[in-house]
Amino acid sequence: MRVALVLLVVLAVVTVWVTNMMLTDRFTESTRNRAELRLALYSGNILSELRSNAIVPQLLARDPALIGALNSGDFSQSSQRLISYVDEIGAASLMLLDRDGRTVAATDRNRLGEQHRNAPHFVEALRSNTTVFTTQEREAGGYTFTYSRRVESQNSVVGVIMVEVDLAKFERAWAGITDAVAVLNSEGTIILATEPRWRGRTMDEALVRQSPESAIERAIKATADWTALPPDAYLQGEAVMRVDGRIPFRGWTMATFTTYASVREKVNAVLALEIMGFALLAALAFYALSRRTALRMALFQRESAELRRLNARLQREISEREKVQKDLASAEQTLEQSSKLAALGEMSAAVSHELNQPLAAMKTYLAGARLLLRRNRPDEAMTAFHRIDDLIERMGAITRQLKSYARKGQEQLSPVDMAEALASSLSMMEPQLKARRVRISKILPDEPVRVMGDRMRIEQVLVNLLRNAIDATKSVAQPELEIILASGETATLSVRDNGHGIEDMDALFEPFYTTKQPGDGTGLGLAISSGIVADLGGRLTARNGVDGGAVFEMQLPILNETTRAAE
């Protein structure tokens, strides 16, 4: 019986191994064929969309109404005419530019008046007699794809018609079907991708940013999974199959990535049945060999008692862990408040200088008012008192900023105007900015940008970013800060300085990491700020600017009608 049991185990191992190899090759080839079929379908969709939009500029460039509007300068009906076309065409947007590159008609009325004089789609259209296609990277991320053609009247150029092709809709459609898809231009740069951080990079750069599993994790996974295969690449730590294809348009190519999950599931289903069958046979063999049922029952009882004791021990450990987590949350909140108070202490020295000036002026005005009263000139004395009242208001505003900044954040979130929070933070940092003579340039949208959050905590993040930017420009002769607030799918606030830049990007948001001199910083500001932004549903990122310096970018979910309804 023992020999038969050994032979049964050997037969089971050989059968499972052979079955695994055969089924893995078969299902992998089937999965690859389906991936190639999807790739051909995707490339055909892109090509069809591009070709269907390519003829539109040629037709619109001959529209008598648009030509007449460019000649007469009356564009009151032009935007409505373009809007009537956009649904039939299926394009993202249509725009009519005059000969100076100014948008005079558009399906998106918010873009009226934009200047495109130096834009590639405008310049190339003026130089060419045919329709031109251009790809341009957006500042907020992603690319725009446009067809443009010049509009002529009596052999003279009067404007340019531009059609924006909506290829982003394919990214959204692919994201729900395929694990990952990327479209590359002729230069090898990714211009469409289901992974947003891939755009603008080469395929090698994009895959390098996907951290693979460690060797130990892969070994454990391979031990537990009979269908482990050599992967083509790693996507979010998971092995994937890569299939490349060509799009017959300007040398574009496409790559799709498919996980081996479906292959593993199918193979493991068959292997599970085989292993179950051999397990039943082994169980019968063990039952035949078993002669000590009573001893087994005693052993099971002892193991059951040990499990009960282990369960009680685990419950105690769980309760202790929950207590530790509550203490840790309280400590994190205290640490955030301590960071604010540390910043408050640093600002108080500069604020005291700001208060000394109005105090000295008040003393002068009081002496003058006393002298005027003695000379029986009360009207002029009242003027001095009014000036003293203005100085007191100014001092009160300074102290109110400090008092509001020192308060703890609120428990529940509320709508926050990012422009107002920025103005309050700049007001708190005004003494340091004046002392360093920092030149500040702000780019703010006309409409309010609101998010759902805690204003005190958002101002804490902004103050930390401004302090770091000021410290980064200490060695610069002419320090400059550029603050940009933009709204789209998210509210994005960027703080750019002209300092020395970021040296160690990986450790930047780690606690207690700092490049400042001992005593100047604790290394907790960015770590706390990153945690605050993450708690509010956003993210805090950093990068080095093209012209030097560092760029910190805070992104928070925009507050729109959908967000209001959800709240």
Automatic annotation (TrEMBL):
Keywords: ATP-binding, Cell inner membrane, Cell membrane, Coiled coil, Kinase, Membrane, Nucleotide-binding, Phosphoprotein, Transferase, Transmembrane, Transmembrane helix, Two-component regulatory system. Its main location: membrane. Residues 297-341 form a coiled coil. The keyword Membrane applies. InterPro entries: HATPase_C_sf, HATPase_dom, His_kinase_dom, HisK_dim/P_dom, HisK_dim/P_sf, Sensor-like_sf, Sig_transdc_His_kin-like_C, Sig_transdc_His_kinase_DctB. The chain crosses the membrane at residues 269-289. Member of the two-component regulatory system DctB/DctD involved in the transport of C4-dicarboxylates. DctB functions as a membrane-associated protein kinase that phosphorylates DctD in response to environmental signals. Its EC number is 2.7.13.3. GO terms for molecular function: ATP binding; phosphorelay sensor kinase activity. It is a multi-pass membrane protein. It catalyses: ATP + protein L-histidine = ADP + protein N-phospho-L-histidine. Residues 350-560 form the Histidine kinase domain. This is C4-dicarboxylate transport sensor protein DctB. It is found in: Cell inner membrane. One of its GO terms (cellular component) is plasma membrane.
